[in-house]
Specification:
The protein is an alpha/beta fold. The chain has a single domain, classed as Maf protein (Alpha-Beta Complex). The chain is 32% helix and 22% strand. It has 5 helices and 6 strands; from the N terminus they run βαβαβαβββαα. Strands 2-1-3-4-5-6 form a 6-stranded mixed sheet, with helices on both faces. β1, α1 and β2 form a beta-alpha-beta unit. α1 packs across α5 and α4 crosses α5. The longest helix has 16 residues.
């Protein structure tokens, strides 16, 4: 574990599932994570308009800059991630969270998105998929960014009760099980989010030696 002494990073997500993964990744580097709620940021309806871009990079940067403007001087970590499916020409991609286009939240939204995925792949033999994540840290006028990917296939049935989002359907090539069957530590050893976040944290920590 790093011995760097840093102020907590403000983590720009409202997702409890993402926070469960991000907190230990920051702890590996000796950095504490502070959620938006812990920092006193009440959810603003305008937050739903932040991720309006066509790339993970643009969306992650927009989110980091949004909360950096609300917390001047604070280092802010944001990420955008999603599932890309070869047979669907990379969809759902940056629309992964909103693919089903329904006004639902939490598990109900996950269920709707997964149902849309299954329907789109009905009768499709090529089920190759890739999870992608871009993580960004913004601190004053400085920006660090990193991308992580992990490959797998979309199964014919869901397996496992861990994880969130499309995890029950995504069978990891490296683990041989779905992300929902894997433990948090197993997922963190290969996941797109872990790879992106570890890389951006390393760059952030190197910046000041």
């Amino acid at each position: 574990m790093s011995t760097h002494s840093r102020a907590p990073l403000l983590v720009a997500t409202r997702s409890a599932g993402k926070m469960r993964e991000l907190v230990p990744l920051l702890a590996e580097k000796g950095i504490a994570a502070e959620s938006l709620a812990e920092a006193g940021f009440v959810e603003d309806p305008r937050e739903s308009t932040i991720e309006a871009f066509d790339t993970f990079e643009q969306n992650a940067l927009a989110k980091a800059r949004w909360f950096s403007a609300l917390a001047p001087g604070r280092a802010v970590l944001a990420e955008d991630s999603g599932l890309t499916v070869a047979a669907l020409d990379g969809r759902p991609g940056v629309r992964s969270k909103r693919w089903a286009n329904v006004a639902l939240e939490a598990q109900a939204l996950d269920d709707a998105n997964n149902a849309a995925l299954v329907a789109a792949l009905e009768g499709v033999a090529d089920r190759r998929a890739c999870y992608v994540c871009v993580a960004v840290i913004v601190e004053r006028d400085r920006t660090w960014s990193a991308r992580g990917e992990t490959r797998g296939t979309i199964g014919l049935a869901p397996h496992g009760a861990n994880g969130f989002g499309y995890d029950p359907w995504f069978r990891s090539d490296e683990l041989g099980v779905t992300f929902a069957e894997a433990t948090l530590d197993e997922k963190a050893s290969v996941s797109h989010r872990a790879r992106a976040v570890r890389a951006v944290l390393d760059a952030y920590l190197r910046a000041d030696g």
